[in-house]
């Protein structure tokens, strides 16, 4: 099944990236243990193992958000603009909620605004590149047709 | 020259013409063979009777509400075959799949365009417009040797 494969890919990739980030930051901040997120996040739970388990589930879900969003680009009847906008809405909503739950973001207006602007700029760049590639494809094909 | 016919259920229909040198005679026969494939006919059932349509007359074949239709310059017919089955029969130098639901005759193709929102448009010589899928772009470019 295609969906099973996509979801499985998301779970594996999400958990892997989440674990690697946690490992990296635990080393960076000189911890003597693996911390899945900020101390404030870990304090919410009775022990670190529970915090890691909850984080692992959130990381897996983050992966699923991105892997399933990829299917938006497979909707043949949608234009580049519609695909990009829907991909943005899906990943922005899904990822932002999960990242807040995972304790990755401070709940600070200016921080979230800055993060949102970066997210939007990245999607505008993706849209510009896709449109440029498509226009170039059309020009190349028309050149062949005129021969 | 020998002419062979091989029947193999798993084989996609194909004619291979093997020549020892690439000269004018070889090219002429090759062009004739392509014409012969273009004159290949598909069976059409209409109002309970059958008739045969040369594939070169077909402008486009497309799926609409899970039914397959073929359009000539003037007519539209319902086809019994699925799109992938037709694709295997149709001559590759003439027909081009542009999306999951459409195959077009290149000889009726005038130009490509991109809409403002970013849809690949295919414009036929008679002005009709249809859409190509981004996922088929690589294959389309390959067919134009790009």
Please give a structural write-up.
The complex is a heterodimer of chains A (147) and B (146). With 147 residues, chain A is mainly α. Chain A has one domain. Chain A has five helices and no strands. In chain A, helix 1 packs across helix 3, helix 3 packs antiparallel against helix 4 and helix 4 runs antiparallel to helix 5. Chain A is elongated. The mean pLDDT of chain A is 94. Chain B is of the alpha+beta class and 146 residues long. Chain B has a single domain, classed as Beta Barrel (OB fold (Dihydrolipoamide Acetyltransferase, E2P)). In chain B, 20% of the residues lie in helices and 36% in strands. In chain B, a hairpin with a 2-residue loop joins strand 1 and strand 2. Chain B is globular. The termini of chain B are far apart. Chain B: This is HTH-type transcriptional regulator. Chain B: It comes from Convivina praedatoris. Chain B: Pfam families: LytTR.
């Amino acid at each position: 099944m295609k969906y099973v494969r996509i979801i499985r890919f998301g779970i594996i990739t999400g958990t892997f990236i989440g674990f690697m980030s946690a490992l990296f930051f635990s080393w960076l901040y000189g911890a003597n243990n693996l911390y899945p997120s900020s101390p404030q996040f870990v304090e919410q739970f009775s022990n670190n193992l529970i915090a890691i388990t909850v984080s692992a589930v959130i990381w897996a879900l983050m992966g699923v958000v991105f892997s399933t969003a990829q299917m938006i680009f497979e909707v043949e009847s949608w234009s580049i603009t519609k695909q990009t906008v829907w991909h943005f809405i899906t990943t922005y909503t899904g990822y932002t909620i999960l990242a807040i739950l995972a304790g990755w973001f401070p709940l600070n207006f200016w921080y979230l605004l800055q993060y949102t602007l970066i997210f939007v700029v990245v999607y505008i760049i993706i849209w510009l590149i896709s449109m440029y590639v498509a226009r170039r494809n059309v020009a190349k094909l028309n050149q062949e047709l005129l021969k | 020259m020998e002419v062979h016919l091989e029947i193999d259920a798993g084989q996609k229909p194909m004619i291979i013409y093997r020549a020892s040198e690439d000269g004018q005679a070889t090219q002429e026969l090759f062009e004739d063979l392509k014409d012969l494939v273009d004159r290949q006919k598909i069976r059409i059932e209409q109002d309970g009777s059958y008739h045969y349509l040369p594939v070169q007359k077909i402008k486009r074949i497309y799926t609409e509400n899970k039914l397959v239709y073929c359009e000539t310059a003037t007519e539209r017919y319902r086809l019994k075959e699925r799109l992938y089955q037709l694709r295997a029969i149709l001559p590759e130098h003439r027909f081009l799949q542009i999306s999951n639901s459409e195959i077009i005759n290149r000889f009726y193709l005038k130009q490509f365009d991109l809409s403002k929102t970013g849809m690949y448009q295919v414009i036929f010589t008679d002005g009709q417009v249809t859409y190509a899928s981004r996922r088929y772009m690589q294959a389309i470019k390959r067919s134009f040797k790009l």
